[in-house]
Every structure is written in structure tokens, then in C-alpha cells.
Amino acid sequence: MSDPSLAPPTRLSAPAPDRPGLAVTVLRGLYDRAGHTVHRGLTYGPEPRQRLDVYVPASPADGPRQALVFLYGGSWQSGRRALYPFLGAAFAGRGFVTVIPDYRLHPEAPFPAFMEDAAAALAWTVRRIGDYGGDPARIGLMGHSAGGHMGTLLLTDRRYLDAAGVPPATPRAFVGLAGPYSFNPLKSESVAEVFAHLPDVSVARPVLQVSGSEPPMLLLHGQRDRTVALWNSERFAEEVRARGGRAELVPLPGLGHVGIIAAIARGLRWRGPVLDRAAGFLSRTL
Questions:
Q1: Reduced to 3 states, what is the DSSP secondary structure of residue 163?
Q2: Fold for domain 4-285?
Q3: pTM here?
Q4: What angle do CA 209, 212, 218 make, to 5 degrees?
Q5: What is the residue-level pLDDT of the chain in tens, covering all 286 positions?
């Protein structure tokens, strides 16, 4: 594969911490409040941001349900789980016990702190998801934007999951939404400082860590994305396949960087089949 660092720079515009843009604020209210139960503020570590919410389907089930851990984006510098009830409700509505963790952010917690938190949240899920009706043997992972980067780095560099005590076969599937899997963060002005302290930035680039042993992946990416360009998913999928892994790439016409996650919200699903594609892939794979 050609060196992905030679591709055009990816722009990741980071909003001010905990001051989301209008689009995400509106999305927060677009969800079905019935059909699930939410357990908020559960702790997976001692730090204030090591908290998570669990969305549990209300409908009866014959046995333990499939589980999903979702990592949100925010340029590794902003974001909070309270903005994503629309996603938790959507996947709970499809039968998934859905976990949405917060994680520590730059600059208060430099890389790899947020990676360690993501791994710790997965470890919590393996230990505790049974208490909420989930199956610890059927856990999927999903991430948007910076969260997609974190998810693929967990899978391509197993050191984080191994250190957290996550079993080797966990997670069993991954869905990425518009993740910057292939770019060189030092060439992106808005996020360079997040990784500038690293002696070798390749350790933070999922595309350079692929082994081919990763679980099956579905990479969804909007063709109108001007924040994280489509080539990030194209090159990552190419590398996974070249090494014998499974990666399905689905470019989605008409969707941009926020639009791809907005399409999960109730009332906006007409914009693209993001929820159907993601839930269908996870159900088949898990």
C-alpha cells in the first residue's frame, strides 16, 4: 500500500469542550423515550470521566442479548455521552444492550489515556454486561470520527485490550463511521498537539498497525464528508484486506461528517441507511 501520510491532510475541527454545536444539540432530543431503560453514570474507573450509560431494550428476550459499545468523536478533545441518547435508544430498539462511555480528553489526559479508557470500558462491559441482560461473548464495537480511530486502534494494537484484561476474541465485530484511520495527525493543524509528544506517531495510526487478525469490520463513510475524507476508510479497508482480514467499505452518497451519525436519529433515518447497515452487520456477525 502507498504511504497514507502522502495523502491530503484531514481536517478535524474540534468544538469547545462540552459546548456542542447546534446539530448535535438537536440530535440529543431526537429519540424514542419508550422501549428501553437507561442506567446512567455507572463507573468503570476512579476518574470523573470514567463513567458510562447503558441502554437496555425493554422487550423480553429468550436469552442474553447482543451488546454494543459506542465511542463518540470530538477530535479527542471534546464530547460527552449525554449527547448520544438518540444512538443508545436506536440500537436498544434493535435489540442491543448499548454502552456509551465517556473517556478522558486532551490536554488534561494526553494520548494514550483515552485509549486506555476505551479499553477499560470494554473490560467493564465484558464483566458487567450480563447484569443488564447482555451477552459477554457477543460484544460489538462502534465508533464515529475520533471514536472510530480509537476503535480501530484498539483492534489493530491489542496491547490496550490485553492490558485491560479483555479476552482475545472481544470485540467480535466493528462498525466505523467516518473515522480518520489512515491520516497522519501531525499534518492536521486542529489535532496535531494531541499526538505531538509521541516519539513515533505511527503508534497512533491504525492503518500502520493492521495485522489481518482483526474482527470483521464495516466502514461507513459519507461521500460528502469534508472533515474526514473518504480516503481514510478506503486506504484502511485496502490494508485490512491486503493482510487477509475482512473489511467492508460502504460509501454513502449525500452524507457529510455529522450527517452520517445524524442519520441514526429518529426522524432523520431517511437521509441514509446507517442504522440498518450497522445493526444488520452486527446482528449477522455477532
A1: helix
A2: Rossmann fold (3.40.50)
A3: 0.92
A4: 95
A5: 444 444 544 555 433 333 445 455 566 666 677 688 999 999 999 999 999 999 999 988 899 999 999 999 999 999 999 999 999 999 999 999 999 999 999 999 999 999 999 999 999 999 999 999 999 999 999 999 999 999 999 999 999 999 999 999 999 999 999 999 999 999 999 999 999 999 999 999 999 999 999 999 999 999 999 999 999 999 999 999 999 999 999 999 999 999 999 999 998 999 999 999 999 999 999 9
